[in-house]
């Protein structure tokens, strides 16, 4: 009986890996086709969720910031996207320093801050408004090229239902306010 359980476990594990590989392939194909929005959680920034008491968005010294690993990962992710031939017509970021820094270190274009991608954990009283703004921005993206948005895991979860790892990218189709995931990329 234990052999059967082990065999089932191995099969389930293999199925999970295939699903992940399938999600990754779908994400790459979508980005190569263009017209998609890549929602990326900022790279590694230790310290839990949110920010320390008294933080200020305009002062990086008061926020959780990228670790050395996070900075290196952001550079590696940007390089990998370039090697794969993925280009972004526009790069947007949450105003939080860990997001802006992730975007800049990826070196994929000029990073513009967009308030609607501000941290919905910290700005919990604005969560619905920020999420609606994010959905509207995705719905307006009808360009042939791709849009990269560097934001927070909680924002991506609110938009897509996916809770991404640090540095993970969830790809959604532009031009739709449903923000339904097409695929996912974990590149670090």
Automatic annotation (TrEMBL):
For the keyword Signal, the answer is: yes
Leader sequence range is 1-21
The record, for SMART domains, names: PGAM
Name it. Answer: Phosphoglycerate mutase
Which Pfam family, giving just one, matches this sequence? His_Phos_1
Record's keyword terms, sorted: Signal
Q: Does Signal count among this protein's keywords? A: yes
Q: Which InterPro entries does this UniProt record tie to the protein?
A: His_Pase_superF_clade-1, His_PPase_superfam
User: Per the UniProt entry, what species is this protein from, by scientific name?
Assistant: Bradyrhizobium jicamae
């Amino acid at each position: 009986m234990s052999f059967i359980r082990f065999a089932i476990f191995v099969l389930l594990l293999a199925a999970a890996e295939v699903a992940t590989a399938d999600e990754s392939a779908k994400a790459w194909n979508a980005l190569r086709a263009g017209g998609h929005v890549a929602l990326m959680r900022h790279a590694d920034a230790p310290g839990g969720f949110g920010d320390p008491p008294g933080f200020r968005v305009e002062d990086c010294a008061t926020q959780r910031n990228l670790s050395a690993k996070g900075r290196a990962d952001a550079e590696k992710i940007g390089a990998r996207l370039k090697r794969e031939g993925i280009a972004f017509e526009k790069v947007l970021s949450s105003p939080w320093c860990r997001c802006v820094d992730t975007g800049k270190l990826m070196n994929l274009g000029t990073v513009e801050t967009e308030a609607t991608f501000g941290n919905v954990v910290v700005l919990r009283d604005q969560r619905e408004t920020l999420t609606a703004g994010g959905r509207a921005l995705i719905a307006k993206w009808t360009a042939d090229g791709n849009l990269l948005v560097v934001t927070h895991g909680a924002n991506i979860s609110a938009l897509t239902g996916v809770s991404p790892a640090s540095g993970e990218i969830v790809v959604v189709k532009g031009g739709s306010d449903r923000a339904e995931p097409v695929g996912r990329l974990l590149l670090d």
